[in-house]
Amino acid sequence: MRCTLPAVGRRITGGIKLIRGKWHARVVLHREPRDASGRYRQHVTPLPAATTEANAEALARLLQHDYDTGHWSPARVEPTTEQLAAYTVSAWVDRWLSQQTYSEVAHDRARVALWLPRCRFGALALSSVTPRDAAALVAELRALPSPKLHRAPAPRTVRNVVDPIARAIRGAVFEGLLASDPFASLPTAARPQSVDAHPERRRSMRLSRADLEILLTEPGVEARWSVLWHLLALTGARLGEAIGLRWCDVQADTPLARVVLASQIHHQTREVRPTKTGAVREVPLHPALASELARWREGWVGEYGRAPLPGDLIVPTHGTTGRPGRPSRVTGPGSPLDHQAVHRALQRDLLACGIDAHRVHDLRHTFVSLCADAGMAPDVVTRWTHAAGGVSARALYLVPSWERQCTEMVRLTLGPGRRARAQTG
To answer: Do 394 and 258 fall within a single domain?
Structure first.
C-alpha cells in the first residue's frame, strides 16, 4: 500500500491507502518543492466508495501518470470522485492518440471517433477491461452498420478501427494503468482480419501494361507531370516519397543508377519525415525513367529559371511557399506538390489518354504487378517496395546484390507508346 518513492532506476507509480474503510489515492509530488525534511510531498485524494482494492491501485497509477505528464496537479481544480470513476477506455484512447506523431494518426483518430462511441467497449472503466471485452468489441464492430454505406463494415475496416485502440491499450499497460493486454490473448477467430469486403475489386487497382505505356508516352501530358508518373510507376514509390525526391537522391552507380527513397512529405503537416515503415529503399533507375529524368533536367531550367541544384526537389511547385499556414521545410525554388493537386492532375491526364480513373497509389500497384509479369524474383521486388528496417540475420546477409537488382530491373520492358510513334510519324 506504499507509494513508490523516487530512487535510482525506479519509477514513481503512486499508491493507495485505506482510511476509515475508504480507499484513497496517494500521489507523489516530485515536481513540487520538498518538505522541511527533504522528502517529496504527497497528495491524498479520496476514491469512490465502491472502489475495490484492484481498481483503487489502477486509479492511483492513473492519477500519478496525469501528474507526471502535466495533465493535473493539486494546484488546479481537484478531480472529483465521479471523474476518477468515469475514466473510461474512450478517454484513455483519445488521450493516447493525441500524443502520437506517426503519419497516419489523423486517420486513426477519425476512425476511432466515428466507431468507438457506438460500442459498449468505450464506456468501460480502463482498469476493468478483459479479453472477453476485447472480443466483444470486435464482434460488435462486425455487426454495426457503416455510417456511410449503411451495411456491415468490411473486415479490413474493422481491423483499421481496432488496431489503434489495441495499441492505445498496450500503452496503458506500459504506463501501469492496466495489468495485461486484453487483445494479446484473443483467439484467431476473434481477431480482425485485413480482408476487403469485395476482394475482386483489387484487380482494378492497377493499370494495364497498355494503359501505362499510353500514360507515360502521351505527348500532351505536361513535362513535370510526366516525370512524376514515371517516378511513381517505375520505382514503386508512395506519393509522399515521390514528391519529396531531390536530385541528389538519384545517385550514379553501375550498371544502373539508383533512386534512394529515404523520406516522405507528410500529406497534412507538409513536413519531411521518414518513410512509412522507417526503412530506406534503393531502387535501380529504369532506363525509361533515366531517359525521362534527363529530358526533364533540360526542361527544368526553362520551368524554374535556373539549373537544378542537388538539394532541389525533382518536381517542385512554381511557388515559394507551401500550403497556407503550413510552410514547407524543403529548400529549393518551390515547395512540394500538394497530394490533392497530384490526384487531380492524374485524373486529368488519364481522361485525356482515354483511360479509366485510378488512384495515384494504383501506380505503385501497377509497378509490382508488372514486375511479377516480367518474372522478377519476389525477394528483389520486396526489397524495392517494402525493404526491411530490422537487423536480423536475414536482413543483413540475404540482401540481393546490386548487380542482380539491376539485372532484374531491365527485365521490365515497356513499348514505345504514343510519343515515339508521333516522333517517327
So the answer is: yes
